[in-house]
Amino acid sequence: MFDTPQLEAYLRRIKVPKPRRADAEALRRIHRGHLTTIPYETLDIQLGRKVSLDPQALFEKIVESRRGGFCYELNWTFALALRAAGFEVTLVEGGVHREKRGDSAWGNHLVLLVEADGRRWIADGGLANGFIEPVPLEEGTARQGPFTHRLERLDSETWRCFPDPHGSVSSFDIRVSPQRIEDFEARCLELSTSPESSFVRVLSVYLPGEPRMSRLVSRTFASSGPDLPDGKTERLVPDREQFASILFDHFRLGPQTLGPAEVDRLWDKATAQHEVWLSQKAA
């Protein structure tokens, strides 16, 4: 877990005061701060950089350099911080869209289970447009501002989560047997390097919010929420300058590891990916 100075720096990053006790209210504040401050993003993958799950490397990237990451990076950072704040945290295996993809989806997501106030909570800081606050590990619905999430128990070990449909993930499964971060390293490497991986093929940045969630996918910038006509708005990013503005001003990514040369490369990739999408759409 993080040491005390690292925890304090993480809490400053997410603009949350240090909790006096590890209770459900503190968990909600930290979860909300993490989700609404640290973007889900695949930019290092797009740049061909190695994704590291080393705690010091994650601290330097996500806290000091004010970057985001994808699920393994974000939720492992979240777990390190929560443990340092006094919470009991269990890493568990997730399967995004297992309902459609079957058991091959297991391991494509890392999820946290956290004990607080005598209840077990799903904490997920790495689901793109997911839960803004933790959700009790109990069957039923959870209303969070304008968004409604639902949880269904499949068997004694397995649960299915249905995030609000305005988000990017229709469902994901979890099984509650404890895992170690080492159990996710091979899948993290595969999904961050394989040419078949969607994380390699498509540039994406997401940030939950209320009343709207936002996302950048290649050159398409979109907002979604129940207050919008048809539930979403989207537009094509016209040039590199607006692309950079979205990264640094809207998603508030730190520029320390994303200089002009890296932004040029990312813009070129986003443009090429958009052209591929247009050709596939026309076919």
Automatic annotation (TrEMBL):
Highest taxon in the source lineage: Bacteria
Keyword match Magnesium: no
UniProt keyword terms in alphabetical order: Transferase
Pfam families noted in UniProt: Acetyltransf_2
Signal peptide segment: none
GO molecular function: acetyltransferase activity
Family designation: Belongs to the arylamine N-acetyltransferase family.
Name of protein: N-acetyltransferase
